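TASK: fixed-backbone design
INPUT:
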């Protein structure tokens, strides 16, 4: 019995060590502990699908290239110009992060999509499958009140999307947002 317990203990310690080494190596490569995000909506179709797992890099480990800059440089990610970023809308941690393309940069008071002046500098973003920019058409609810999405400040960017793996995000969606999966099936 004691021998079995010792062997089990060694196996558990070995598994913890392996997971720890993988986590540290992943952090060393990406600069973030949260290395993947599941796509929850069709806003990035056809380049990202609901249920895809998107592997990311810390924004501190890369320079974000906007769609506008990508055209000039010939730089593409996910079959379109510029980088796809994951950001906290209006800097709110309580709201689901958004995975959309950084289209261009605006300075404070410059005109944004829809004609309003930018309240501060930041990225103007848009889903590849959306007809309008986030700052024109998307809102976030805070305490029952709806606010338009503001230009994305660099500190609101959680990660930069790098690799897409189809279907691998479904387990996360099933556990966290079962209604999304249920609506896809029905």
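OUTPUT:
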């Amino acid at each position: 019995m004691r021998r079995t317990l010792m062997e089990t203990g060694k196996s558990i310690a070995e598994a913890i060590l392996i997971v720890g080494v993988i986590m540290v190596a992943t952090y060393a490569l990406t600069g973030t502990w949260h290395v993947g995000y599941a796509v929850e909506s069709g806003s990035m179709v056809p380049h990202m699908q609901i249920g895809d797992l998107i592997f990311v890099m810390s924004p501190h480990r890369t320079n974000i290239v906007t769609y506008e800059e990508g055209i000039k440089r010939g730089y593409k990610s996910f079959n379109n110009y510029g980088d796809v970023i994951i950001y906290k809308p209006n800097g709110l941690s309580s709201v689901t992060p958004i995975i959309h393309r950084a289209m261009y940069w605006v300075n404070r008071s410059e005109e944004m999509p829809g004609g309003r002046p930018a309240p501060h500098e930041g990225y103007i973003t848009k889903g590849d499958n959306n007809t309008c920019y986030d700052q024109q058409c998307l809102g976030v609810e805070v305490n029952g009140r709806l606010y338009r999405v503001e230009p994305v400040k660099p500190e609101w960017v959680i990660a930069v999307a790098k690799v897409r793996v189809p279907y691998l995000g479904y387990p996360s969606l099933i556990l966290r947002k079962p209604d999304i999966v249920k609506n896809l099936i029905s």
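COMMENT: The chain has five helices and ten strands.
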